[in-house]
Q: What sequence folds into this?
């Protein structure tokens, strides 16, 4: 039986960039809003602290906030000495933080379903379930990385959007960067174009930070340069992450993804999303049924507190957009690369049909 402390110690000894971990009775996480110039570690001693860290995007990325669901409910069990009601309330709070994040919803639900008994028996049960989820999510990254890397050829230039990497996942490469990192570690000579990703600049701040950390050659562009790069032959493939994939293969991902997919289609460039079976929402028929989180307009009119638009300017910030399935060349999962027709072929990773652990 592996304890959380043993697991964290082992992970910290490997070449992983952990977004969050448990240490001496509290949660520690990298404040991603401070990257790349400061690697501040934030302490969360309560689930309320963790929820605020998720809302404020100190921790973000579909995989990372998914494992927050496991860590958060274990923390609730730990601090409440195994009170089932406190754990359930913690789950409700965490699920309210980011409505588009299906990983978080699924992980919280799995933890709640594992509640059995009270007191220390329950604490230990929550700990073992958390360890199980963490190990599974990291395994997903290695496996989908292998499947995705098989699509990458030596000499390819790959474009990605936002940050779908280690700090947005379980520590190896998240979704998109698991593909890119695996291809690089296989010895393929690749280059990555990373879009800066307004308004939070995750591509410039975090993706470029991780690519540098992993020794992967890369070039930063602004989001509105992607069409130029595709049209002038600078891009061979596009690999993005995923915040939710509907049952028909429509993709919810960082706003701007749809724009890149349209340009890719026009220029006949393969467009892939890297995901896991855990991020596919088989209860959501299509992208039109996905709730898109709308964030505060000040996040567009200001950058780190500095105003960049006239006072009183109205602004819009949908955190995600929906890329329809006909623009997607393939969905990279831990079970393989799934292609159209997606409604039929995604059923191969539906846990209800195939008994895949979630």
A:
């Amino acid at each position: 039986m592996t304890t959380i402390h043993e697991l964290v110690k082992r992970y910290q000894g490997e070449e992983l960039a952990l977004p969050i971990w448990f240490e001496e009775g509290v949660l520690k996480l990298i404040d991603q809003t401070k990257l790349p110039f400061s690697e501040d570690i934030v302490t969360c001693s309560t689930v309320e602290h963790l929820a605020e860290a998720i809302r404020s995007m100190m921790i973000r990325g579909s995989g990372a906030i998914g494992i927050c669901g496991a860590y958060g409910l274990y923390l609730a069990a730990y601090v409440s000495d195994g009170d089932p009601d406190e754990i359930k309330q913690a789950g409700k709070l965490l699920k309210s933080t980011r409505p588009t994040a299906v990983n978080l919803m699924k992980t919280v639900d799995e933890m709640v379903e594992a509640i059995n008994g009270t007191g220390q028996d329950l604490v230990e049960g929550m700990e073992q379930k958390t360890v199980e989820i963490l190990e599974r999510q990291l395994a997903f990254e290695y496996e989908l990385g292998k499947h995705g890397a098989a699509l990458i050829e030596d000499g390819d230039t790959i474009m990605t959007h936002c940050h779908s990497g280690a700090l947005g996942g379980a520590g190896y490469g998240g979704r998109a960067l698991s593909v890119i990192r695996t291809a690089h570690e296989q010895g393929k000579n690749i280059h990555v174009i990373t879009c800066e990703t307004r308004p939070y600049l995750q591509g410039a701040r975090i993706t470029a930070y991780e690519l540098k950390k992993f020794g992967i050659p890369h070039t930063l562009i602004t989001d509105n340069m992607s069409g130029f790069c595709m049209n002038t032959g600078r891009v061979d493939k596009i690999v993005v992450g995923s915040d939710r994939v509907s049952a028909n293969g429509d993709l919810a991902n960082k706003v701007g993804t749809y724009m890149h997919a349209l340009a890719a289609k026009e220029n006949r460039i393969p467009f892939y999303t890297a995901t896991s079976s855990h991020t596919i929402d088989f209860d959501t028929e299509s992208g039109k049924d996905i709730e898109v989180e709308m964030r505060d307009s000040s996040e567009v009119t200001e950058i780190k507190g500095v105003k960049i638009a006239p006072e009183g300017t109205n602004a819009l910030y949908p955190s995600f957009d929906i890329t329809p399935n006909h623009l997607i060349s393939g969905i990279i999962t831990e079970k393989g690369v799934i292609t159209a027709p997606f409604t039929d072929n995604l059923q191969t990773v539906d846990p209800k049909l195939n008994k895949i652990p979630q």
User: Anything to note?
Assistant: The domain at 4-141 is CATH 1.20.120.420 (Four Helix Bundle (Hemerythrin (Met), subunit A)). The longest helix spans residues 119-149.
